[in-house]
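Record filed here:
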Amino acid sequence: MEVLSSAVRARISILISGGTGSGKTTFLNILSQYIPRKRTSLTIEDAAELRLAQENIVRLRNRPPNIEGLGAIRQRQLLINCLRMRPDRIIIGEVRGEEAFDMLQAIEYWP
């Protein structure tokens, strides 16, 4: 736990993966306790599952299209926009689609 908490404090990118019900969200919620309180964290989620321990959290959620097929907000759009906001941390709940490429690019070039 010392290594992981040090990695969180040092702003090292961490990828958590696993099967359904394996405790990924619980693990992430525990790791979030080591993020400094005054830092701004931005989350992108399908459903609001994360219970982070910070005060400064901006929560973004994707939205499916309406009945006419309009108004959708895709996770990829949210990721691109949040990179422009320059938060201290970006936490993405799940990556399953086209946003994976953008996320990997962001990990490589994030300061």
Observations:
- The mean pLDDT is 84.
